[in-house]
Amino acid sequence: MLLALNSSSPPLVNAIKSGLFWEIGPYLKDYKNLSNLSKVQFESTKIQGKTYSLYRARPLARFGVTFRKDWLDNLNLKEPKTPEEMYEVMKAFTRNDPDKNGKDDTYGVLAFKDGQGYLIPHIASWFGAPNDWKEENGQFTPSFMTNEYFEALKYIKRLYDEKLMNQDFVVTEEQQMNSLYNQGKAGINLGLFDDVGKSQLELRKINPQAKVGILDTITGPKGQRIWSQPGYTGVFLFPKSSVKTEAELKQILAFFDRLQEPDAVNLLTWGIEGKQYKLTNGQAEKIVSDDAFNNDTLGLGELRIDDGSKELILTGEDPLTTKGKQLIKDNVKIVVTNPALSLYFESPTWSQKSNELKKIVSDGAVKFIMGKIDEDGWKKVQEDWKKAGGDKVLTEFADIFAKSKNK
């Protein structure tokens, strides 16, 4: 059974706690591939410290910096390695006519209204802020209450004050932001490394000479750090109503274990060799349209829980996209995980009030960046968050965490 497991699914969590689903954790050691799945991603899906589900893997370390390599070359600048060097590049991209069109029409970086885009997560990670939450001796502190996070906000405020970022970010949609970047209106894109090659193709529709470069991250006071993503989308759970015996459960787990082998991974990714794809120099070359592929495979790719590391490379893949995929793999070693991710499922206050609490922080961050509140105003945002239910969330998190460790 494929289901979404998140902070808005308390009925499902209650059903798991009630014993309606198999606990699969004790069985995983008996399967070669399942036992080697990421412990980090399993940790994010646990309920009361126990594993009930197989997660559908998605990359952990997707954050990255995409930049205009041709602009950097035009201005004789080096790739930035630190937050201050990045600031200098953003300033030059804004003020020094990096596209050589004789107009003052570029920004260093863009942001959009929902959480300021990826701007805060990127920059907060550079300054060493924890990923949403810090856990210390079983007690939790939200990231926005840390000094590192506040340093990141001050950095972003400097970008805003000096007009190195779009001044209308509070009304800019994500799609608009991406469109502006692809039109050559900004030199830095703080986003995800999902398909950076496509970004270069879009830019070259307007400027055939455009060149894109990518950086894994920036080295801040605590070294290189990247906030991790949850690392999964949906999970497979095994209800006792349909999986009635231990023998049946083991058969199903064996099936998922088999799906981790390279031949099965490539079957679900590319189809049948000679029918949906052919091998060309050890790479997969599609021989049917995407629509025909989807019709032939009937969505069987939804069964995939592998991380994609065993799949064949697509023939003709843009080298930039290939490099981005490699950086996503390499950057796993520097990800900073969210220690409260699995606690979201079990905290009733977080389930009820997470949107309200997030909005208090997001609105406060916008006001600080735009100069509508000062440091005292930011401290009031923190107090407002606590009074709106944040204090109760912290108590529940600590209690749930303690109980999970005693299992």
How would you describe this protein?
With 407 residues, the protein is α+β, with helices and mostly antiparallel strands. The chain is built from 14 helices and 15 strands. A four-stranded mixed beta sheet has the order 4-7-3-8. It has a three-stranded antiparallel beta sheet with strand order 1-12-2, with no helix packed on it. A two-stranded antiparallel sheet has the order 5-6. It is flat. The model has no long low-confidence stretch (mean pLDDT 91).
Number of helices: 14
Instruction: State the shape.
Output: flat
Roughly how much helix do the residues carry, as a percent range?
A: 40-55%
Helix and strand sequence: EHHEEHHEHEEHHEHEEEEEHHEEHHEHH
